[in-house]
């Protein structure tokens, strides 16, 4: 009688006491991923926007520093809580989504320690590419009701939007600018292990 028992590969591993994702391709779940940007209006009020159409893959290597990240963002999927503001953000004064419909992030170097690290990568927005560091943390693993293994990551960085050619602004009478140049980017990424 042949042994037909199968041994399921664990979706996580423990390294130096930290639970981390197992090697493999972890596909981004767009419906449970939040890529947000925060700027300041009148240099005081925080204004938050988010993208609802984000795709890509986190490829975890046996050595975490050899891992790769590829992300694509549909710039027209931006939402900020105001239809009028969304229209302006998409216009040629800011994102110009007709000419530059997609933003991408491609990792170039990973420096991982424990449950967190820095993922350096080429960020392309508005047709301009700059290498930026993302501070990334692995938040944990869950198994969904359909048997899928999900890995959750958070990340953040800060960019100057003018570095990417997004320069529209209005000078204030009392001094300063209507919209901040520095933009905080905050990411909550839910991924599903591809067992194919």
TrEMBL record:
Residues 25-192 form the Lipid/polyisoprenoid-binding YceI-like domain. InterPro entries: Lipid/polyisoprenoid-bd_YceI (IPR007372), TTHA0802/YceI-like_sf (IPR036761). Pfam families: YceI. It comes from the Bacteria. Belongs to the UPF0312 family. This is Polyisoprenoid-binding protein YceI.
């Amino acid at each position: 009688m042949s042994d037909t028992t199968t041994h399921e590969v664990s979706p996580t591993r423990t390294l130096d006491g930290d639970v981390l994702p197992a090697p493999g391709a972890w596909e981004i779940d767009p419906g449970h991923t939040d890529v947000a940007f925060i700027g300041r209006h009148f240099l005081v009020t925080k204004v938050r926007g988010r993208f609802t159409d984000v795709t890509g893959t986190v490829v975890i290597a046996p050595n975490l520093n050899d891992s790769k990240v590829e992300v694509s963002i549909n710039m027209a999927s931006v939402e900020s809580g105001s239809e009028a503001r969304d229209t302006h953000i998409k216009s040629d004064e800011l994102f110009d989504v007709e000419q530059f419909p997609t933003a991408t992030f491609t990792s170039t170097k990973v420096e991982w320690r424990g449950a967190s690290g820095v993922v350096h990568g080429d960020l392309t927005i508005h047709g301009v590419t700059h290498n930026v560091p993302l501070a990334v943390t692995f938040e944990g693993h869950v198994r969904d009701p359909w048997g899928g293994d999900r890995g959750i990551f958070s990340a953040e960085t800060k960019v100057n939007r003018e570095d990417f050619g997004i320069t529209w602004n209005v000078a204030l009478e009392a001094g300063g600018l209507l919209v901040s140049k520095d933009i905080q980017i905050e990411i909550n990424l839910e991924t599903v292990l591809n067992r194919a």
